[in-house]
Amino acid sequence: MWRVLTRHLVNTVECGGATQLPLLTQQFQPPHSHQQINYLTQAKNNKMSSEKPKVVFVLGGPGAGKGTQCAKIVERFQFTHLSAGDLLREERAREGSQFGQLIEDYIRNGRIVPVEVTCSLLENAMKSSGQSRFLIDGFPRNQNNLDGWNRQMDGKADMQFVLFFDCAEDVCVERCLGRGQSGSGRSDDNMESLKKRIQTYNNDSLPIIKYFEQAGQVKTIDASPDAEKVFKDVERVFVANGFQ
Ligand SMILES: Nc1ncnc2c1ncn2[C@@H]1O[C@H](COP(=O)(O)OP(=O)(O)OP(=O)(O)O)[C@@H](O)[C@H]1O
Ligand SMILES: O=c1ccn([C@@H]2O[C@H](COP(=O)(O)O)[C@@H](O)[C@H]2O)c(=O)[nH]1
Predict the structure, then answer these.
(1) How many CB atoms sit inside 10 A of residue 10's CB?
(2) From the CA of 96, how far away is ligand 2's center (Å)?
(3) Domains (ranges, CATH) in the chain?
(4) Which amino acid positions bind CMP, per UniProt (predicted)?
C-alpha cells in the first residue's frame, strides 16, 4: 500500500496536481533578462546563508506539555514551531485532500501515520516558512518515522538535540482529558483514544527516545511541575546549547 502512496506523492509532484501536500520541488522557469540579476543575487544570498536549518525534535507522551512549552520557546528564542500533529490535522481538514480519511482513522485510533505523508508535510512547512530554526513537535514517533526522516532529510537539516518531556502517564491522561473538556475539539482527547495513544507511545515512541538517548542526544525535562517552572528548565537547555 505504501509503495502506491509514495508513487502517488511523486506523481502529484510531477503532474503539479491540486493537492499542496507534496510540493517538494519547484519547477525551474528560465528568467527574463531583468530577472537574471535577481536570480544571481538570490544565488549569492543563498550561498551566504547556506547553513542547513537547525532542528530540535520535541518528544514526550500525549499531553506532556510539548505544545505549551514550544509556544514559550518560540516567544523566548528564534524558533518556528512545527507540530506534526497540527500539520496532519490541517491536511485532514484541507478540502480535496487524498489523505483526510486516512489521517482521521490513524489519529482516532492513536496510530502513527506513515512517514511519507508526515515528512512531506514537515519538509514543505520548513521550506515555505523561509526560517532556519525549527521545533519539530511530536515527531519522529516510531522507527518508520525515523527511517523516513533520515531518508528524506539526509543532508538537509542539522538535528541539534531531542527535548524530551518526561511525564507520568496519569498526569498525561488528566491533562488530555482536561484539554478535551475545555473544548479542544480533538477527536482523540477521550479515554478510548488515549488508551491507544499511550500504548503506541510506550511500544513505538519510547524506543526511539531510548535510541536518541544512547546516542547522547536527549535533554530530559521533568514535565510534571507547572508550565512556568518547566520552562525554566527548558530555557536552561537552550542557553546551554548556544541559543540566545
Ligand atoms: N506543566 C503543565 N501543568 C499543567 N497543565 C499543563 C502543563 N503543560 C500543559 N498543560 C495543559 O495540558 C494540556 C496538554 O498540553 P499540550 O497540548 O501542551 O500537550 P502536548 O504534549 O502537546 O499534547 P499532545 O501530544 O497530545 O498534542 C493542555 O490543556 C495544557 O494547557
Ligand atoms: O508524527 C506524527 C504526529 C502525530 N501523529 C498522529 O496525530 C495524533 C496526534 O498527535 P499530537 O502530537 O498529539 O498532536 C497522534 O496520536 C498520531 O495519531 C502521527 O501519526 N505522526
Answers:
(1) 14
(2) 21
(3) 55-240 (3.40.50.300)
(4) 145
- pTM beyond 0.80: yes
Question: How far is 29 from 162, CA to CA, in rounded Å?
Answer: 39
65 in a known ligand binding site? yes
Read off the pLDDT of residues 98-153 as tens digits, 9 standing for 90 and up.
999 999 999 999 999 999 999 999 999 999 999 999 999 999 999 999 999 999 99
Kindly report the protein residue whose alpha carbon is nearest to atom 7 of ligand 2: 85
CA dist 1 and 140 (Å) reads 21
Say which ligand is closest to the CA of 84.
Answer: 2
Specify the residue for cell string 488530555: 176
In tens, the pLDDT along 196-205 reads: 999 999 999 9
Ligand 2 centre to CA of 121 (Å) is 13
Between the CA of residue 223 and those of 70, 89, 172, 189, 228, what are the distances in Å? 13, 25, 10, 19, 10
| 56, containing H or E segment | strand 54-60
Residues 6 or more apart from 191 whose CB is under 8 A from it? 173, 177
